[in-house]
Amino acid sequence: MARAATETAAIRDLAAAVAALEARKGSDTAALRRDLVTLLRAHLEAGHAEAETRLIAERDGLACARRLSQLMDEVIAAVHGVATRRLYPADNPSTGERLAVVAVGGYGRGKMAPGSDVDLLFLLPYKQTAWSESVVEAMLYILWDLKLKVGHATRSVDDCIREARADMTVRTAMLEARFLLGERALYDDLVARFEHDVVRGSAQAFVEAKLAERDARVSRAGASRYLVEPNVKDGKGGLRDLNTLFWLARYVYRVHEPKELVRAGLFTGEEMVLFNRCEEFLWRVRCHMHFATGRAEERLSFDLQRAIAERIGYAAHGGLSAVERFMKRYFLTAKDVGDLTAIVCAGLEARHAKHRPTLDRFVQRLRRRRRGPLESHDFALDNNRITVADDGAFTRDPVNLVRLFWLADRHNLAIHPDASRLATRSLKLIDRGVRENREANRLFLDILTSRNAPEVVLRRMNEAGVLGRFVPEFGRVVAMMQFNMYHHYTVDEHLLRSVGVVAEIDAGRLVAEHPLANEIIGTIQNRRALYVALFLHDIAKGRPDDHSIAGARIARKLGPRFGLDEAETETVAWLVENHLVMSTVAQSRDLADPRTIEDFAKVVQTIERLKLLLLLTVCDIKAVGPGVWNGWKGELLRTLFYETELVLTGGQSGENRAERVRRAQVALREALPDWDDASFAAYAARHYPAYWLKVDLPRKIEQARFIRVSEAADRTTAATVATDGFRGVTELTVLAPDHPRLLAIITGACAAAGGNIVDAQIFTTTDGLALDTIFVSRAFDRDEDELRRGERIALAIERALKGEVRIADLVAARRPAKDRAKPFHVAPEVIIDNSLSHRHSVLEVSGLDRPGLLYDLTTAIGKLNLNIASAHIATFGEKAVDVFYVTDLTGAKITNANRQAAIRRALLDVFRSEEEAPASPPRAGAR
């Protein structure tokens, strides 16, 4: 009561202030308009400040949204009053000089965020008159002067009905029309005719159109509700989904308030409470986002997440940071919105207002089965969907909570929403006895390792809450996000997607993208272990200890429970504990260094483990998110697989090094028939053994011809470009006189030209030239476009090597002013390891990524008088991990402790100096 009285007093105060202003200005309408804008701007600013203060204190997003809508009502009323009383009064109005001001869209719902649009309908009786045109124009100009974003339409009642019939967007906006000011009879006429002429008999068409519109919107904003930078308004599980849900219910059930959904039989009382809780939380987040940014920001980006978590009041707890706890709440809310949407859709289907879904259209198309009777009398078919025979199905046998999903997978059936709804309400039946039940675990393992659609069914289990209840360790990571730029999804979504990827490979659907994985998956002996390992590999995320080691412990506990034998369980535990090893070695180690392969082979030990680890690694990377997997990573993994396979099978790895060099030279000689023996012998003598062992034959051929052409043209500094569409990289080969800062100049030129380096092969000839191949991630699909880009980068490298440009200036100019990675902190680390290579010291440098980082690091290494033999560049979101194989100027390893300490200080200073410099975003296409 006190709050309502306060708000009423605010309206009275504004009305009194406007009346006083009108009295003071008299006939000076220009001054009246100018001072009215000043008065209303101050009123809006004060109202927003009060709304923000109350939002923080009361933690009620709905109250804030309604308060802001009420504030806008006050402003519209003041503007309308001045326009009709003083600017364009109608002393003796005709029947045509009538006007109703109606709020539509979000404003019509009576809920607004600080940056929301003001959607208005100026409603006329039949046509626009000079008076109505003047009033509307005057109101709009004042609202625009207030810097408000106004969406508006001026229509007669007939116009509105005609537009609503033809356009679903107009129809939806009118569905939420709310009378504000003017002629109430016009508004009432519109409502009556809208119900009679538009809504009646058109429910199915409206439902289908809005659901199709939702699919398109969600696809644009991100098809998963578990994207780690969600769109609060338009993303899956966001406010627009709740709006759509209510639009459908309002159109079909003719309800006007959400609470009427219970009376209509669509929601239970508990579900209505859940609806209100979701709506309040999402409005709270959205209002905080608008207040924090000062604009209509709808994407909950990493930059905002920490600030919003703090504004709402989250703190670190249970191994999760404040921002991770906040985002977990957000994703659980998004999941609840999805559950509510499913309930409404089920109700619409029952009224024949919506087409029925299938479990998985791809599976339905490719794997149709003849369906006999279901294996349990507790379930039945309802319009080709599996449902419970009665409400006691789960109470009689709690194992049915797992069997429901097993039957859905076995028969390729969609699950009736009523069955999912009952399962969610029956979760407490899943106790220790059910979890340890042999039959329940057999059914679950069948689902997990199914050849149909395991990802789809597991996701249904997860959305119903059954999966997290049946496997509590999985329940701990449901809706858990990792606050970094690398992972695109929550942990549970990532795990389910990884199972989906292996199922696609298993079904032969990804032959072109993953040729080696497709080739070997049919040869593995431990298929069940692979699927279980993928389901569990990140299950210990969010715990204080290393998630790989903790995950292995969980695997050893769950394996026997699921029905795996001792050997399978141990294989799963090994895979979980080592699930990052192959990716790390492939992306950050010199695969041409025998020591790398020897050490990796010692970890893997058997061909079967090598195959399983490759498959797990491919699926893990692919499931991280769109664009994370690429052909370059695939090439690195294939190289590591084949080299390790040779060691494990006693193949070529045991061959004499000199013999391997000789064979490589013979192969190149045969590929260059136009060279005479003397020319080839001289050329072969220019390369050290490392070149012959590391570079593949096609690249050796191209480089031999490149060097010959360059020298014939008397060019000691030259660059050439080639594209590789499958691996997703562009190769830049540079020939130049060798010197310690050569790689720094090349990386700086790449950064300045927008080239994102992913790897580098570095060789020196016996006559003092450097032959360096830089691999840059591809930017264009078409080869001709990519070649033009590569040639621009090559030209920049040549100019830099010739001293025509200052690299430091170009790199500095490339750094943007604002830091995209500002929300993140990555502690810089420098590791110097002499055990990873027989010939080189390995420098592993990790820290917060940024444009020009690789240039800064190579510059520092050059100043330290170190020779870089190879460089391996990897980025995991905001974290850069760059590895350099180096020696001192005499070709020896760095073993002196003082020298190592100096190297660490110099490389750590690269990160410290950046912390003191103006902020800049990570990589932005170049390092």
From TrEMBL:
Task: Give the HD domain ranges.
Answer: 491-613
CDD domains (alphabetical): ACT_ACR-UUR-like_2 (cd04899), ACT_UUR-like_1 (cd04900), NT_GlnE_GlnD_like (cd05401)
What Gene Ontology terms describe what this protein does at the molecular function level? [protein-PII] uridylyltransferase activity
Annotated ranges, domain ACT = 731-813, 842-922
Q: What is known of its domains?
A: Has four distinct domains: an N-terminal nucleotidyltransferase (NT) domain responsible for UTase activity, a central HD domain that encodes UR activity, and two C-terminal ACT domains that seem to have a role in glutamine sensing.
Q: How is the activity of this chain controlled?
A: Uridylyltransferase (UTase) activity is inhibited by glutamine, while glutamine activates uridylyl-removing (UR) activity.
Supply the SMART domains for this chain: HDc (SM00471)
Ordered alphabetically, the record's keywords are: Hydrolase, Magnesium, Multifunctional enzyme, Nucleotidyltransferase, Repeat, Transferase
Q: Which Gene3D superfamilies match?
A: 3.30.70.260, Beta Polymerase, domain 2 (3.30.460.10), cca-adding enzyme, domain 2 (1.10.3090.10)
Xref: PROSITE patterns? ACT, HD
According to UniProt, the reaction catalysed is: [protein-PII]-L-tyrosine + UTP = [protein-PII]-uridylyl-L-tyrosine + diphosphate; [protein-PII]-uridylyl-L-tyrosine + H2O = [protein-PII]-L-tyrosine + UMP + H(+)
What cofactor is needed? Mg(2+)
Q: Which family does it belong to?
A: Belongs to the GlnD family.
A Pfam family that this protein carries is: GlnD_UR_UTase
Q: What is this protein called?
A: Bifunctional uridylyltransferase/uridylyl-removing enzyme
**Lineage, highest ranks first:** Bacteria, Pseudomonadati, Pseudomonadota, Alphaproteobacteria, Hyphomicrobiales
Region feature (Uridylyltransferase):
1-373
